[in-house]
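Hello,

I think I submitted the pyridoxal-5'-phosphate job twice by accident. Can you confirm which output corresponds to this input? Input:
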Amino acid sequence: MNWSALRADFPILDQKVHGHPLVYFDNAATSQKPQVVLEALRHYYEHDNANVHRGIHELSNRATTAFEAARARAAAFINARSADEIIFTRGTTESINLVAAAWGQKNIKAGDKILLTEMEHHSNIVPWQLLAERTGAKLAFLPITGDIGLLDMNRLDEWLTKEVKLFAFTHISNSLGTINPVVELCARARKLGITTLVDSAQGAGHRPVDVQEFGCDFLALSSHKMCGPTGFGVLYGRQEVLADMPPYQGGGEMILSVDFHTSTWKPAPHRFEAGTPDMSGAVGLHAAMDYLDKIGRKNIAEHDQELGAYAYERLSRINGIRLFGPHIGRAGLVSFLLKDVHAHDVVTVADQRGVALRGGHHCNQPLMRRLGVESTARASFYFYNTTAEIDRFVEVVEEIRKFFTA
Ligand SMILES: Cc1ncc(COP(=O)(O)O)c(C=O)c1O
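Support: Only one job matched these inputs. Its output is below.
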């Protein structure tokens, strides 16, 4: 695969920042968008835009067809059994909030436990805290093994107790680069009748995702982290689980009939999509999924691991650097701290050299506390990044270290 050639698909990458060629290493926050996605959005608004599911005129039919085609495409992308298992949302955060509100309201009561892990993003913690406050349920956190950042699988049995009703965990850690053993985690929970939710915000655009192989009940993903538009995403829910779930929000499109005092609901997935949806988001995500599958998600995963391993190895040679996450088998991102240099200083100086990093808690405050740090600097890669860019980044980090420790 000629990875460098793919850069031509991303007009934004071809620019200088503060006089230097842009090195975009903030892909875990959001990815860039290829020309085919930009064109799909433009084509939709120039030719087909109308509200979906409502009109019987030509444009409404076309918009509805495009919207539902995106649902079928999303189902194929994650190997769901049916397009009815695909709910469109604003992204991973809304997908998780939807489960916490709708499934949680029906299935969680005082004394129940919701099991999370110590490496969760705030969007896979706070919705459960809100649910726990409403219901009197408790939260528990499967520990990690320290800076290496693996889940402590030896202690999983201890944490999967009979009070646990839901186990929600991340596919790939956005701070550590850990790739979690999703199939095993789901299987161990399922044996005990525990419902599972996989946060695949960092996974779905980077490696093959097969919800049937995973054996999960729910899976959440964000379009903007996988070459698609912002403000759009997917919640996968296993058909049997969705059939039993009350609505999330009320409004147009999710009802069968409305009376002054009562209403009846459509079946899934439309029961969970109140109001006018983001039609262009669906069209853009469809184009993004086609684009990613043309490259091949297995290829992307291999390239990610090569970039992750290369960056980890090059950084590990820098004096006094502290690296987080697994040594081997890591995803395409590296978090680090330079001795006596604040992560924000690293990111600010790197920006002056055209290198876009992220510094902070990465919406992982509990994980940062667990690691005994306030923040880290993070470089996160996508398939359009190259080892030459990593060389440039490492050179800049070395320069920063020398400047701050001279
Ligand atoms: C692991 C993980 N989960 C959830 C999210 C939230 O995604 P979004 O902001 O697209 O809803 C992120 C975003 O950084 C993430 O990295």
